Amino acid sequence: MVLQKIFRAVIMGPPGSGKGTVSARITKGFGLKHLSSGDILRANINSKTELGLLVKSCLDQGRLVPDNMMSRLILSELRRMDQNSWLLDGFPRTVAQAEALDDAFTVDTVINLNVPFQTIQQRLTSRWTHLPSGRVYNTDFNPPKVPGRDDVTGEPLVQRDDDTPETVTRRLKSYETQTEPVLEYYRSNGVLETFSGTETNKIWPHVEAFLHKKLATAQKSVA
């Protein structure tokens, strides 16, 4: 789909909700440029930009990156692609960040993936990794040939700290506490669209149909 009007969207969803898969399908199917706040952070830290060094200092001290710093970082990246349609992932995470984004750009829609925590917990805690190679297995749908062993080397698999049940529960609760006010902000602005389900492949057709309809309306307005 070739867009005549610039279209800007935000995608939200907890870790393990399938956000990466849905984002990839949106960028491929609709020509939006995918911008991940995590990628932007890493790029600035690696390039040792002024903001990147400030962010690294915060992270090294175990502190959250302040809203104004995070907003400056993301907005400067977005301004560079002023004439592009984009899909923003991982930002905003607070109402202050959402307000800063609204001051600079018009967000056309916010896609929220609502996947039950129990499903996500099962999805993430089933992941086992072969650390030397980075190969990842899932005991539910991509199990190793020999339980607990890497298919190629036969070496033991481990569960990353991020994927233990306790850590997953903590991350999901933290996400919920942090983002509920942001979802409410977008809900009250009339741009939030929530898609619920337990399987990405079943959620995707609804997201795709919604975007086709939304973009067709947007294009008509400039015709």
Give the SSE map.
Elements: E1 8-12, H1 19-30, E2 33-36, H2 37-47, H3 50-60, H4 67-80, E3 86-89, H5 95-104, E4 109-114, H6 117-125, E5 127-130, E6 135-138, H7 165-188, E7 192-196, H8 200-220
Parallel strand pairs: 1-3, 1-4, 2-3, 4-7
Antiparallel strand pairs: 5-6
| Strand residue percentage | 5-15%
**Tally of DSSP β-strands:** 7
Main pleated-sheet profile? 5 strands, parallel
H-E order: EHEHHHEHEHEEHEH
Judging from the principal axes of the Cα atoms, what is the shape?
Answer: globular
Q: What structural class do the secondary elements suggest?
A: alpha/beta
Q: Could you estimate the helical fraction of the residues in percent?
A: 40-55%
Strand order of the largest sheet: 2-3-1-4-7
Number of discrete helical segments: 8
The rounded Rg comes to: 19 Å
Mean pLDDT: 91
Low-confidence regions: none
Distance between the termini: 15 Å
Describe the overall structure.
The chain has 223 residues and is an alpha/beta fold. It is 50% helix and 14% strand. The chain is built from 8 helices and 7 strands, in the order E-H-E-H-H-H-E-H-E-H-E-E-H-E-H. The chain has helices at 19-30, 37-47, 50-60, 67-80, 95-104, 117-125, 165-188, 200-220; strands at residues 8-12, 33-36, 86-89, 109-114, 127-130, 135-138, 192-196. The strands form 2 sheets. A 5-stranded parallel β-sheet has the order 2-3-1-4-7. Strands 5-6 form a two-stranded antiparallel sheet. Strand 5 and strand 6 (135-138) form a beta hairpin. Helix 2 (37-47) packs across helix 3 (50-60), helix 3 (50-60) packs antiparallel against helix 4 (67-80) and helix 4 (67-80) runs parallel beside helix 5. It is globular and about 55 Å long. The relative contact order is 0.17. The mean pLDDT is 91.
